[in-house]
Amino acid sequence: MEFLISDQRDTSLVQLGGRIRKTREARGLSLHELARLSGISAPALSLIETGKRDLRVTSLYRIAGALRIPAGDLVEPPSEGTPGRAADEGYDLGDYA
Prior knowledge:
Residues 72-97 are annotated as: Disordered. By secondary structure, the protein is mainly alpha-helical.
């Protein structure tokens, strides 16, 4: 079970890093330019973009701010035609009681 969780986490990090790289490139920024704008070193950003380094929430916000996009768009990009969960639907916590 722990192996599966680790694989899912690793996949998530690779996907997040890929979204950061894609957005950076779409903005026409080099790795070093994003490093200067975000205050995160270029080597650290490289590891983040390749999914080899986990990042803190504060780093995510610094990167998103430098890219001028909401941090949530890096975590899970908005998809067209997919409605969000209604706030009044609540949560099913029956398995955790």
